[in-house]
Amino acid sequence: MNSYGVWVITLALLYTLALIIVGNVAKRKAGRGEQYFIGGRTFRWWTVAFCITGLFSGSTYISIVELSYLTGISAIWYGVAETLQVLLIALLLIKSFREKLIVTITGLIGDQFGRRAKALSGAITAFAFPMWSVATAIAFASAFHVFTGVSLSLSVAFTALLLFVYLQSGGMWAVAFTQTMNTIIFALMFIIGAAAFFIKPGISGLQQLAVEQPGMFDWDGAGLQVILVWFATFLVNVILAQAAFQMALSCRTPEEGQKGLIVAEVMSIPFILFGILFGLSAAAVVPDASLGLIALPRYLMGVLPAPLVGMFFLGIWACALGWGAPCQFSGATSLGKDVGSAIFPDASPEKLVTYTKWSLLLLTGLMIVFGFLRTEQSAWWNVLAWTMRNSATFAPVVAALFWPLVTKRAVLGSLFGGFTAGLLWYHLSNWHPSDFFLNIHPVWVGMSVNILTMIVFTVVFSYGTWKISAASPVKSSIILGTVVVLLAVNGYFYETLHAAGVIGLTLFLNVLAVFIGSIMFIKPKSATMVAKKEVVS
């Protein structure tokens, strides 16, 4: 181990100690029951801003560093897509969700559609979150491995254990305190990275890179289909971003939560810009690395002294924790609180906290196992997590919010059908992170089946309880026109869309248009019939 490794380990251990202290302090505030899950709903807007910045901006920064090293400035669209997601959450959902006192998305499904739906959606969601956690932990572990020689798997295991130590004590308070500390570390990382850039390669170095690799400065360098998938994924995730909801809904008032999200939007800008700058700098100085997160430490080792490099990568560590901690805690909340209350409906709030702490231990073990299974493929875990969670819960969440006709049976069929279809499609793709069967991403298949199953179950098994409701001519024309146009585009341009890798997305948009039309036009005949239907189902 060289001096760079000594500094990285020393600073990581000191930071770990600070986090443990934070966990014990937070334990005094965590209190009981809902205090543990949503901080007693006492967060001010700046706490929400720090939490959301650590969650989304930290993970986005890591992704952009990697993407900009490989594809150049087009990585900015990943950041723009993430920023748009947070803005839509702030403008469209936070006020209504806060007024309904929602804690988790799986809890929302359970409250509307019963214990079995809560248990199934909670389990699927819970087991998806360690996959996202390990994906980001792998990104940090890559740099940690370069400096120290410690294997990637052991680095992931260490990160997972750290998350468990401080989360099991303070719950949402621990997350909030940690995200605030992370924000300070982020600022130091940016200052150190900017100094490294001006030392080498500087503006002239980037100009030389533009001459040698002009494609790195194309706005569509990542490929149109990839950029479209970024936007589509983040837009779909607006209604499913459970970890973000759980932090933002811990606010004192809906207005505070909304303000915190908007401030987080502004705070995300440096993460996007510096991520691109550092990725391009690494590409200019270390062009022969296979991964940006391997090239970045090699680049900084040749520019800065060991203490500054150690501080810079403490920022990368903070990014991994900023994403991993809320993911692990939110997953444990779904498993402990939602699945626990579904299995044991008479459990007290204190008992649900106990279940959640045990769930944290279980998810920590899963995160370590995942890290040992496919340590080198963070993209693989991201795809699997998106496929599992989104394929199961998208339609049930929409139904809970907008379609009162849907029955418990339809939701259970939708959860199981979408989840199974997404994983089956991934299996047909040989579980590859980017080369999918028929060039269609499994999440679009899973979500399409998720929606269609709900529509069919609702229409067929609830026949006699619904009617076709007349809508305004304008709305009817828009919905029907959208369905027809999308069908025509998918049919006429199938080969072009398939070659571009976006046919799955366009087919999903067609299914989504049908779903929206069903919600608008298929209405319950009467509240009495709906109540009888629910009893039967």
From TrEMBL:
Give a yes or no for keyword Transport in this entry. Answer: yes
UniProt main location, coarse:
membrane
User: What residue ranges are annotated as transmembrane?
Assistant: 6-25, 45-64, 76-94, 119-140, 146-167, 174-199, 227-249, 261-286, 306-325, 355-373, 379-403, 410-428, 443-466, 478-494, 500-522
Location relative to the cell: Membrane
The keyword Transport is annotated on this UniProt entry: yes
InterPro entries, per database record: Na/Glc_symporter_sf, Na/solute_symporter, Sodium:Solute_Symporter
Tell me how this protein sits in the membrane.
Multi-pass membrane protein
Q: Which keywords has UniProt assigned to this entry?
A: Membrane, Transmembrane, Transmembrane helix, Transport
Q: Which domain of life is it from?
A: Bacteria
The record's comment on protein family reads: Belongs to the sodium:solute symporter (SSF) (TC 2.A.21) family.
Q: Which PANTHER family match?
A: SODIUM-SOLUTE SYMPORTER-RELATED, SODIUM/PROLINE SYMPORTER-RELATED
Q: What is this protein called?
A: Solute:Na+ symporter, SSS family
